[in-house]
C-alpha cells in the first residue's frame, strides 16, 4: 500500500503546525502518510525568530500570542513547552498618545469601575466627545447584516469625536491598518456581537464585568527563551518522523516527514486522476495527493495563476502591508522615563513620528535594562518606511533624545523588515474568503493555511492548521 503524500509549501508557524497535526492524526489512525514541507528561505519559522546578541534576547518578529483561546497553549503543552510559558509584557493596558511633543496616558480596556470613569473623563477627550459617548446605550442597533468598516461602526455608536481622537490613531498605530476600510466582522467580531445581543457596547461591557473571572489570567503569553522555541520544538518533533523512512520497517501508521529549506516553488498544477505537481525553482518536480499552501495569499496566487486563474485572482484581492521593526535596548539608568508603564506610544492623527507605534516593553527581569520596540508600516508612513536602515535608526534615536531626553547610545539597536507580511482585513473580508473556499473546492486536495484568511495571530494560524489537518482526506493507493 503506497503512502498518501502531502506537500506543504511554507515553513512558518502555519506550515509546521499543519505538518505536526497531520503527522499526529496519521499516527493515531495508523495511516501511511508522507509529508514534505518546502520552505523558500534558509530557515523555518517565518516571522517567529528569536535572536541573542551580547547576552540579550530579543524577538525579530512576533513577540507574544493571545492566550484567550487554547490553540497555541495546547500546542505548547503537546510539545512539552508548558514549563516555558510566561506572561508577556502587558503593553495593551496602557496607550500613550503623542501630541505636540507631549504624551497623554490613556488606559486600555478598563479593568474596574474607577478605570472606566478615568477613561471616560480623560482630558485628551473633548467635552463634546464625552457627551456623545454617554448617549451610546440609546443608539438603536443596526439590523443590516452586511459587513461594515470599524470607522463606520464607531462613528455610528460613539460619534465622530471618539473615532477621531481615540480609535483612528490607535488602529493606525497598533494594528497598522486603516479603520476606514477595516472589516468589523473580521477584526472585531465581539463589537458586532455585542450590538446584536445587548443592543449597545455599554450593555455588553456591564455584562462582561458581572461575569468577571475570579482568578486573573494572562492575556498574552510568550516562551521564556523566546518564541522561536516553538518553531524548534515543531522541527524537532517532525524531524523524528523525518528519520523514520530510512528505517527498515515501513509499518502502516508511521508518518514520514521531509523538511526542506531553500526550496522555493515556481508553480503548482493539478492533474486529474494524478494529483498535484509541484515545480520547484531548481526544476525539480514533486507529486502529491494533497497540497497545502501555508503562505501569504498573494504568493499562493502566483503559484496557481496558470492552473486556477479565477482562484488566483480571488487570492490576490487579499492585500498585504510590509512592516519593519526596530529593537532597542538601553541601560535602565540611561532612560529618564524608566518608570513609564509598559504600553504603546501612538502618534495622534496628523502628528508625524518615525514609527507607527513604539512598544515600551519596560525593564528586564533584573531591572538593569530597558527594552523598546518600534513598528513601521509602509502603507501608513511610506516616506519613513522607505528610508535606509541607518536613517531609520538615527531618526528613532533623535526622537527618543528630543522626547524623553535619552542621550546615551543604546546597547543594542537593529532593524528587521518583513515584505508583505501583514494582511489587511478590509471590509467584506470573510465574503472574499468564502469565495476562495468555494473556488478551492473545484481542486481536490487543495488547502490554504496562513494569516491571510481567518485571523493573523499565532493562535489563529495554529487553529487554521488544525482545521486543515482535519479536512485532509487520506486515500489508499
Describe this entry's structure for a reader.
The relative contact order is 0.19. The model is unreliable at 243-253 (pLDDT under 50). With 477 residues, the chain is α/β, with parallel strands linked by helices. The longest helix is centred in the N-terminal third of the chain and has 17 residues, at 13-29. The protein contains 16 helices and 20 strands.
Task: Offer a concise description of the structure.
By secondary structure, this protein is an alpha/beta fold.
Would you count the extended β strands for me?
A: 20
**Class of the largest domain, according to the CATH hierarchy?**
Alpha Beta
Rg over alpha carbons:
24 Å
Largest sheet: 7 strands, mixed
User: Structural class given helices, strands, pairing?
Assistant: alpha/beta
- CATH topology category name of the largest domain: FAD/NAD(P)-binding domain
* Share in β-strands: 15-25%
Overall average residue pLDDT:
88
Low-confidence stretches: 243-253
Distance between the termini: 6 Å
The CATH superfamily of the largest domain is identified as FAD/NAD(P)-binding domain
User: Number of domains in the coordinates?
Assistant: 3
How helix-rich are the residues, as a percent range?
25-40%
The CATH architecture of the largest domain comes to 3-Layer(bba) Sandwich
Shape: globular
Q: Strands of the largest sheet, in order across it?
A: 8-7-16-17-18-15-19
The number of helices is 16
